Amino acid sequence: MIMAPARETPPAAERRPAPGGRGAERGRRTPVPTGSDRDDLADREATSSRPRPAAGGARSGSGGGERGSADGVVTGILPVAAPAAGSGRQRRDARESAWTEPAGGGSLPHRATDWIIEHWGAKPGRHPYLPVALVAFAATLALVAWLLGPAQHDESNVAAADPTPTQAVPSPAGEAPTPTQPAAPTQRAASSGAGAVSAVGRVERADTASLFPSGVAAHSMAEVRAWAEFRGSPVDVAVTYTERNSWDAIVNPWMGRTFASYPGDLVISVPLFPDEGPQKGSLTACAAGDYDARWRQFGRWLVAQGRGDSFVRLGWEFNGDWFAWRASENPGAYVQCFRNASSAIKATSPKARIDWNLNAHGPGYRDAFSIYPGDNYVDVIGIDSYDQYPPSYTVGDFERQCNDSDGLCQVISFARQHNKLFSVPEWGVVSQQDTKAKMNAGGDNPLYIQQMFSVFQRNADILAYEAYFSEGASGNVRSSLVNPNQHPNSSATYQRLW
Fold first, then answer.
1. Are residues 315 and 413 in the same domain?
2. How confident is the model over 90-143, as pLDDT tens digits?
3. How confident is the model over 388-447, as pLDDT tens digits?
4. At what angle do helices 221-231 and 488-497 cross, to 10 degrees?
């Protein structure tokens, strides 16, 4: 359903610091001994019978997960390269064998050299100073490695080196959800590109100071002023219609002069070709490109009038059976005709906003979405929706017809899927007297007014504009809410809401 309220995004909650492991206490390394200390240590180790603890083994720092390998190398956060001497046990054995007291006694200062002499084969009393120095240096390195090794495996030291893990900051709380979309249209044409989000940028809505742009169908500035006075708010858009009997009436239309002083946006309804008179056209000729030059001329007219960004309602209500450009006559030709006209207009008026406008529940072509011209040729998905065929006496009635094939809710869904705006260029209540619909119309129906307002309000983020069709002539819809007021209850509801 599309009736989910569109709420403003509330302010984002403050970002809290990312939770991490608490900082561990930093351990102390064993100080490196001096030269005299080494001699004392050698004496103690040579005479001591206590076994040394084996190096290595698994340990866990405060952060968890740091482990010692078999050779004493810490894996994980703080890796330590293994010395070339081999494993911890091998290093320990090397240190012990280097400092084992040699047989035959001798004074302490000469034990090491005597042992070297014995193993190297030198004569007593002549000490090989270079080999002695090298062996002493190697023994010193082994001792330092042994002294530093336990400090690196000490649990408190590993913990001190363990930084607090970096964690992703959670999304701010309280974000408003995306407004609920209406049910997706049931069918799609493979050529329409439906189902994929459009890469074409979305155009701007009509200018407004209200929640959504609103207007009226009008033939004069007097009608615009009367509507603004009736509802007590400005008219953002005026929906107008060109004549249809010649190309000159189409590409140089009358509203340029009549609405020259109008500050709002114009919606210009134009046929795809003249539908009467000697210049009467056809879909096949339009699809062949025969009218492209005419549409380029129309684009130049828009720019010359200072209306280059107008909404162009091109071949409106194409899925009905009452206009010469009806799609049911030749769907393929209709699609190509629309593409040609749209491209030609944009060639000379790039900011023009092309409105692809179907009729709700049109009898001529029930699956309008299957002949969608494509995202590159359409800026706005429009629909004319009246309270008829069927009327909406209850909220349930309204929702069913809205979500039915080619209904308003379907248009909103389709627009969202294609990253487009939607529009309602014509809508209104329909009289049951002197109209074609008769009892298939809702008559004076304030519920319909209320439900339409709710749809506009809840989907205001992509509503290009909406315009009430206030017309009182017999034989049409007789929807007038003012001058004359043919539906007093509906009129009062409209005034209250708008």
1. yes
2. 433 443 443 344 444 444 444 444 544 454 444 444 444 555 555 566 666 666
3. 999 999 999 999 999 998 999 999 999 999 999 999 999 999 999 999 999 999 999 999
4. 80
Is residue 393 within 8 Å of residue 447, measured between CB atoms?
yes
- Residues 391 and 278 placed together within one structural domain of the fold: yes
Taking a C-beta distance cutoff of 8 angstroms, is the pair 304, 316 a contact? no
Cα dihedral sign, 314-316-318-321? negative
Q: What are phi and psi of 265, to 5 degrees?
A: -90, 140
pTM beyond 0.70, yes or no: no
Q: Provide the 10 A C-beta neighbour count for residue 23.
A: 13
Which amino acid appears at position 309 of this protein? D
Dihedral sign for Cα 338, 343, 349, 354, please: positive
User: Is the distance from CB of 478 to CB of 433 less than 8 angstroms?
Assistant: yes
My answer on whether 144 and 194 are in the same domain is no
Residue 343 lies in a domain: yes
Q: What's the CA gap between 85 and 365, in Å, rounded?
A: 87
Last residue of a domain, one of 142, 161, 180: 161
Residue 362 within any structural domain of the chain: yes
Q: In Å, how far are 253, 360, 368, 371, 390 from 357, measured between CA atoms? A: 20, 10, 10, 12, 20
CA triple 366-368-369, angle to 5 deg: 130
Q: Which residues contact 319 (CB under 8 A, 6 or more apart)?
A: 326, 327, 328, 358, 359, 362, 364, 365, 366, 368, 406
Structure-token pair, residue 336: 């190509």
The 3-state secondary structure of 43-108 reads HHHHHCCCCCCCCCCCCCCCCCCCEECCCCCEECCCCCCCCCCCCHHHHHHHHHHHCCCCCCCCCH
Which residues span the domain enclosing 142? 35-161
CB 91 within 8 A of CB 138: no
How many domains in the chain? 2
C-alpha 426/C-alpha 267 separation (Å) is 11
- Please state, in angstroms and rounded to a whole number, the distance separating the CA atoms of residues 20 and 160: 15
- 237: enclosing H helix or E strand: strand 237-241
Which amino acid, 491?
S
Residue 18 carries which DSSP code? Answer: P
- Angle separating helix axes 446-458 and 488-497, nearest 10 degrees: 20
Distance CA 195, CA 178 (A): 19
Question: Cβ neighbours of residue 204 under 8 Å, at least 6 residues apart?
Answer: none
